[in-house]
Amino acid sequence: MIDDKTKRKLLRELEKSGNIYFSCARIGVERSAFYRWHSSDEEFKKLADLAVNRGRENNCDIAEQALLLNVKEKRMDAIKYVLGHNSPRYKENVIIWHKKEEPEDYALRELTFMDMVKNYYEHIRKQNIRLKEKYENMGGIPAKADGTEIENDELFNYETYIEEWYKKKKIEENNK
User: Fold this and answer.
1) From which domain of life does this come (predicted)?
2) Domains in the chain: how many in total?
3) Which pick of 51, 71, 119, 159 has the fewest CB atoms within 10 Å?
């Protein structure tokens, strides 16, 4: 059973590091326990959030100190970083320009559902015309499996059937 003493230890570790995983590992508590306490104990949640923020502030202080040491050692990357982030004179000015252009064919973007349906049927009609010419040049349009004729407006739906029929016919002719 975890007691309040363990929670207090965890809060102290969080204040040092600001990292939940690292703090839990240091005192031997599973992260799942931390998150369980965090969701069920309102007081612990407030204290833990405060401790994590303080820990992160401490880490920032340590990082700033290391950065300043690098500046003192005249490391150019550190110098550029400090100047670029603290002096308007050395700050990189990036301008992002947003330009809104009208589409070339604005009518295409404003299609209604009915327009799309009409376009679909027009596409099918053109496909049927193309398929009729193709199959007439190949020797005609075969009948359906039930013996009825394939109508011109049905060609698109029967394209695979017709292709397979012609393949089978070609194989039969080659076997003769």
Assistant:
1) Bacteria
2) 2
3) 119
